[in-house]
Automatic annotation (TrEMBL):
SUPFAM superfamilies: FAD/NAD(P)-binding domain. It catalyses: [thioredoxin]-dithiol + NADP(+) = [thioredoxin]-disulfide + NADPH + H(+). GO terms for molecular function: thioredoxin-disulfide reductase (NADPH) activity. It comes from Streptomyces collinus. This is Thioredoxin reductase.
């Protein structure tokens, strides 16, 4: 049984959690990082837009990051957090296999889940020929033909953005009639629309084959789409008492309206890129260190701004 009182438990071992651990470790804080290994971008296999790590495999990035953190008082547990809450001024975190841990603060950086449309074959192509982020994947697919799937989540702005990487883009929609503003933006971008129902996606030598409900098919070099997301906050209930962490975040350094709970990465505000997530982890690490200093030495640092009301 681990009886240590950690300064911070970090949930999530992606760029946000790892960089938060680096800032806190270098601040001489005792840190425990718990990671389930179920990253949102694991299907893609690589990461982009991070200097010195552009194109690095996610597994290699994580391994090298952990090796660098070995110089500091940072402990790792490969486990799944089942619950987290606050009890008597201390954070209590319970895991599936490793037991219960106690800390002064919790940095929650577990990320979000991407929710794929329920179209047969789509999940099998995810991360290989089907993508969401143009800045992460369009360079590798440049000059190929692109399809943009505007299903439940309209994606006309994504289609317009992709014109930088390809001159051959087709917008696919299950909706027979598009709203006028959506159609007008596609016309302005020079993107034709195929508003026929889609029954399946299949692998193709070019990339992906789209099977329409009338039996026709078309092949494209890659398919892009916007996705719904689910915040991975189940272990925080009932402590959180909110649908997500973004709604209770009170400043740009990851503080929340719940004392001792901080957020970083995809669960925070506008941080759904690896480099931005890492930056948010560093900001949260600095906020945690400053708040612990205030707790240990009242009056030594100015108080942070008052929390914003929850939205």
């Amino acid at each position: 049984m681990d009886t240590q009182l950690y300064d911070t438990v970090i949930v999530g071992g992606g760029p946000a959690g790892l960089n938060g651990a680096l800032y806190l470790g270098r601040s001489r804080r005792r840190v425990l990082l718990i990671d389930s290994g179920d990253a949102r971008n694991m299907a893609a296999g690589v990461m982009h837009n991070v200097l010195t790590n552009d194109g690095a495999t996610i597994a290699d990035f994580r391994a090298r990051s952990r090796a660098e953190l070995a110089a500091y008082d940072v402990t790792f547990r490969d486990d799944e957090v089942t619950s987290a809450g606050c009890d008597g001024g201390r954070v209590v975190v319970t895991t599936k296999e490793s037991g219960t841990f106690h800390a002064r603060t919790l940095l929650y950086a577990a990320g979000v889940r991407s929710v794929l449309p329920a179209v047969p074959g789509l999940a099998d192509l995810w991360g290989r020929a089907v993508f969401e982020c143009p800045y992460c994947h369009a360079w590798e697919m440049r000059a190929r033909s692109f399809a943009v799937y505007g299903g439940n989540v309209p994606s006309e702005c994504l289609a317009a953005t992709l014109t930088v990487w390809s001159e051959d883009i087709t917008y696919l929609s299950d909706r027979r009639v598009l709203p006028r503003d959506e159609r007008d933006r596609l016309v302005a971008a020079g993107v034709p629309v195929v508003a026929d129902g889609i029954s399946a996606f299949k692998p193709h030598s070019e990339g992906v084959e789209v099977i329409f409900e009338d039996g026709r098919s078309a092949a494209f070099g890659a398919l892009f789409l916007h996705l719904d997301i689910e915040p991975r906050v189940d272990p925080l209930r009932p402590w959180l008492q909110a649908p997500d962490l973004e709604s209770v975040q009170t400043d740009e350094r990851g503080r929340t309206s719940l004392p001792r709970l901080y957020v970083a990465g995809d669960l925070g505000r506008n941080m759904q890129q690896a480099a931005m997530a890492a930056a948010s982890g560093g900001l949260a690490g600095m906020a945690i260190n400053a708040d612990l200093i205030r707790e240990d030495r009242p009056g030594s640092l100015p108080e942070p701004p008052p929390p914003r009301p929850a939205r």
